[in-house]
Amino acid sequence: MQIAKIFQWHGVNSLEELAYNLNTEGYICSLIDAGHENVYAGFFEIKKDENNLFKTTQSKLSFLNLKEENGKLELSNLIDFLPKKLENKPIYFVGDATITYEELIKKLDEKYIIKLSNHKQNIASGITLARLGYIKYKNGEYGDSSVLSPVYLRKSQAELALEDKK
After folding, report:
1. What is the DSSP string of 39-94?
2. 114-125 residue pLDDT tens
3. Alpha helix (H) ranges present in 39-152?
4. Is pLDDT of 43 > 90?
């Protein structure tokens, strides 16, 4: 259990890397299209520290289904994922699912101030990944690389099928 905590705090994940593509302070929601009206979602608060380096001060990861039981795309799961305290504050959205679900995300403007990334920022960048790794290193957020392992936000299709059989 401790190993997973080390990775989640000290590793660099794809959703956080997308958030750093924006190169800005603020509240950022990264969305990666997982197919079948599902998204991998990450919420981050990013601020500059005393050394003028960006630092993630708050993060949350989840797998969200955007389709309701009636088959219609809805915002309820995304709204539940976003912190309530941010109503009427700007939230930047980034990632390929931001393009796919742009019209749906724009409907959030009744509760939040929505800022959409440009198309170049929605693509994972090796430069941003290296910069984020450097920032984490400079902030002392690193651990033993021999214990790093992937963090999966959802079970594999095979695991889900096995559960259905039982």
Report:
1. EEEEEEEEEE-TTS-EEEEEEEEEEEE-B-TTS-B-SHHHHHHS-GGGTTSEEEEE
2. 999 988 899 888
3. 76-81, 96-100, 102-106, 126-138
4. yes
The predicted pLDDT at position 4 comes to: 37
* Beta-bridge mates of residue 32: 40
Q: How confident is the model at residue 9 (pLDDT cuts 50, 70, 90)?
A: very low
Look up residue 49 and give its DSSP letter. Answer: -
The backbone region for 41, taken as left when phi is positive above 0, alpha when psi lies in -120 to 50, beta otherwise, is beta
Please state the pTM of the whole predicted model. 0.81
Q: Is 32 helix (H, G, I), strand (E, B) or coil?
A: strand
Task: Mention every residue, 6+ apart, whose C-beta is less than 8 A from residue 125.
Answer: 17, 21
Going from the N-terminus, what domains does the chain have, and what CATH number goes with each? Answer: 2-165 (3.30.420.40)
pLDDT of residue 165: 77
Find out whether 94 and 102 touch, Cβ atoms under 8 Å: no
